[in-house]
Amino acid sequence: MVIHKYPGPLPRQAVHDEEAPPSMHRRTRVFRLAAVTALAAGLAATAGVAPAAAQKTKALPATTINGSGATFPQGFIDQCRESFRKVQPNVTVNYPNPGGGSGKGRQEFADQVTQWGASDAPYPAADLSKIKGGSFLYVPTVTAPITISYNLPSIKKPLRLTPLNVAKLFQGDITTWNDPLIAADNPGVTLPATKVAIARRSDSSGTTENFTRYLSSAAGSVWKLGAGSTVTWPADAQGGNGNSGVGAIVKATEGAVGYVDYSDAKATGLKFATIRNAAGTFILPSLEAATAALDGVALNADGLYNPLNSPSPKAYPIAAPTFVLVYAKYSDAKVAAAVKAWAEYLVGPCQKQAATVDYAPLPKDWATQTAARLNALG
């Protein structure tokens, strides 16, 4: 098992008294089960679901474990929190809605404000020595597309966008939707002269980091804003808190374009573009295309993986990773048992529910590898 080792005191338990029960945070997308039943059945074979015998665990004592962080996996985390209560009714798993962003999740976990965190990107190297709780693990959970969502009522079919044009849209080089660069990729489409309104994250965001990392890779030197959880956007870009905040801006603003996770984009009813992938094929975001992005991608020994700009011809090119953060050791045995059970549930039984809330489950062997790493958590 590879873990990240850094000196520091063992974590203490934090309590978020203001946190509402999981049922208060359930999104409307949780109830779209009928629409995804067939898809869920098709993807179930790839999910790392623990054997039935392994799922029969003894009830844990009353414990509260608090998390915060990424909004990209919010729907999956909220769904799993709800169903985990039936498995371990004495354990309360708190997670704010919205989660606060990957940057907040990493910081609060490092400061031991929370017992677990969620992030779509690893810690920057400069921050590793600041993690107070000692050794920790990255636990991969699901993958999903980052959509390029837009608000153009007159456009009925998905627009086609190349990586270069996505870069130019988001750094302000393309200012109207009828720009010749967009028209060239959409022959026969009557594009409006509507002004482009950029919607971006206002918080420190793993979605921003993965989106900008993708553009740095796929658009090369054309992309000039760099990569990170925060970047300096054009001055007139509108900032939203969390993926849902960006989605709300796009929904309310004609001409807007934003990068929004697939689950939130679908739940908000947004239109999103087909993006040309590394193989030269225009691909619409979907769970199948996100799963294809994992073809040939290795799960590293530390739990990290990178499906961005996948070479697979069937891959959606902006498929993002996401992880939860857990410490290898906890000073409170009840907290240790609860965190371990929660992490095992995310990579085990709850993988079956990923597609119902618009996420692609882990490959079966990844889930098995991750479960083995969690055996040493205590």
Topology:
Layout: H1 33-43, H2 52-55, E1 63-66, H3 74-87, E2 91-94, H4 102-110, E3 116-119, E4 136-140, E5 142-150, E6 160-161, H5 163-170, H6 180-185, E7 197-201, H7 206-218, E8 238-240, H8 242-252, E9 256-261, H9 262-268, E10 271-272, E11 274-276, E12 282-283, H10 287-292, E13 319-320, E14 323-327, H11 333-347, E15 360-361, H12 364-374
Parallel strand pairs: 1-2, 6-11, 7-8, 7-9
Antiparallel strand pairs: 3-14, 4-14, 5-9, 5-10, 5-13, 5-15, 11-12
Give me a quick take on this structure.
The chain is an alpha/beta fold. The chain is 30% helix and 15% strand. Strands 5, 7, 8, 9, 10, 13 and 15 form a seven-stranded mixed sheet that branches.
Polypeptide structure, described:
The chain has 378 residues and is an alpha/beta fold. It has 2 domains: 22-141 and 323-374, 3-Layer(aba) Sandwich (D-Maltodextrin-Binding Protein, domain 2), CATH 3.40.190.10; 145-292, 3-Layer(aba) Sandwich (D-Maltodextrin-Binding Protein, domain 2), CATH 3.40.190. 30% of the residues lie in helices and 15% in strands. Strands 5, 7, 8, 9, 10, 13 and 15 form a 7-stranded mixed beta sheet that branches. Residues 1-55 have low confidence and may be disordered.
